[in-house]
Amino acid sequence: MQTLNGRLALITGGSSGIGLALAHQLLAEGTRIALLARDAQKLDQARERLLTAFPQGDVSLWRADVANASQVTAVLQSLLEQLGPPDLVVNSAGVARPGRFEELPLDVFDQMIAVNYLGTVYVTKALVPAMIERGSGYVVNISSVAGFLNIYGYTAYGASKFAVRGFSDALRMELKPRGIGVSLVFPPDTDTPQLAYENQFKPEVTRALAGNAGILSPDAVAKEIIRGIRRGTYLILPGFETKVIYLLSRVLGAGINPILDAMVRRALQKSRANQDLHRS
Q1: Fewer CB in 10 Å around end: N or C, the chain?
Q2: Distance of CA 219 to CAs 23, 28, 224, Å?
Q3: Tens digits of per-residue pLDDT, 84-95?
Q4: Which domains does the chain have, with CATH numbers?
């Protein structure tokens, strides 16, 4: 998709984080923006921020919980009737709740699948038929580094992001002959409100492992996503560290496990040493 000026982009999770950064950069390109999120107050605040930066911008708000299939279908049907099919759909809504497997409640697993995976499916399902009928469009699904290399503490979150990857792999093959592009994004930790929430629950081992991918700004991630959309790139890997980790995981395959195991052992030893120090 070379031209973004005048196009319509629907961004889920667009009231904060990567979604809001994308909306800001797309508005600068002359793109019309439709933000979808569940919190009406945050949506209003996001629109105010965007229009302060771009007073002539076109920003519409759509309130829905992406984990609620009937709600998503109804709201996006209204969008189709009022605005027509989006040229670009960005599935950015997501939530992360790390923790050791034995300590995570089952409802956390349900939530990760409902929001991160099924939320992506519901939104795409509601809009792709109209895009197919038109014969053009572009879908961007945001996974995570944990969506290709899962680690300690992410049994719930990483599994849901692997599901996004599997969905996107098949979706790309199905939609390409219909004139619709698909990109899959694997961002590392990104400086967003979601990361601040997530950090409350990260085991020390998870902090040690996840920190190796670096922390990017939402603007940096958004910039790479837009570059990938322009080029029609399927796999978008924001940040140098992410590219290196992806390459290593592909080259080493299961051979990367001893490296990760050694990192876990060191992190556990450090954690125990810190606990002993506090007790003494």
Answers
A1: C
A2: 10, 13, 9
A3: 999 999 999 999
A4: 8-255 (3.40.50.720)
